[in-house]
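ESCALATION

Customer reports they have been waiting on this structure for their group meeting. Please prioritize. Original submission:
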Amino acid sequence: MNPQSIKILQQILAADGRYAGPVNGTRDVLTVAGVDAMITARVAELIESPGGWSARRRAVACLQLACRDRGIPAGPVDGLWGTETQTGYDDLLDLLTTGARPQPWRDRAPSDVNPNGWPTQAEADLRRFFGPPTDAGLVAVACPWRLTIAWDRQKSTGAIRCHPKVAGSLERVLKRVHGHYGEARLRELGLHLYGGCYNHRPMRGGTALSTHAWGIAIDWDPERNQLKWGRDRAALAGAAYEPWWQAWEAEGWLSLGRVQNFDWMHVQATRL
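Update from on-call: job pushed to the front of the queue and completed.
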């Protein structure tokens, strides 16, 4: 079990009145005692006597019991961390983080609306709609929350420089997002970590120009949403970010993560 799962375990034990120590991700004596107390009290729900179980297996069983208590499927209470337990734990984590059961990710269909008539990302279509790729004429759109430069966190900015044709749409998205989350929550979710907009370069992993070369794409929280990561690892794939993506998709912006399950940091004012 990693420190995050131990923190969740400590929260569960504390809510159950079996742990009064710090929620610090360390499986210390108090945590082990809380686990043993929970296992003893609920031994009838286990698949077998836990007498020979390791401390880790007993701790996993407590997480499985916590999932069961909240109506989250996690397989039999056997203390073994398999695929069912992993899926249950992921849902439990979302529940404790956001206060609500997550929508199953297979049911999260990205919107297909395109009210601004964004073109496809084919270079010829981009040139027809936005003109040549250049930083000449880019405009600054004020962001309602302060942005931290992801690659240099000692620096920050209050605006995003983008192509003038996407400026109005971007402003509406940012205002909607800020209105929904508020600045404190945006920072908690890492949505203040700005990975950049304009960058005249090829797309990573390809030879065609990136949509960044037109100033019509933005990267968010790159460290926790790396290029090849799917929804099993990318932070922006979590249920807490659903309103974030809905705000972008209402304006026709496209998330590569949502439609292709990679590069979750990236959102662009184009279609595929």
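Sent to customer with the following note: Residues 164-181 form the longest helix (18 residues).
Escalation resolved.
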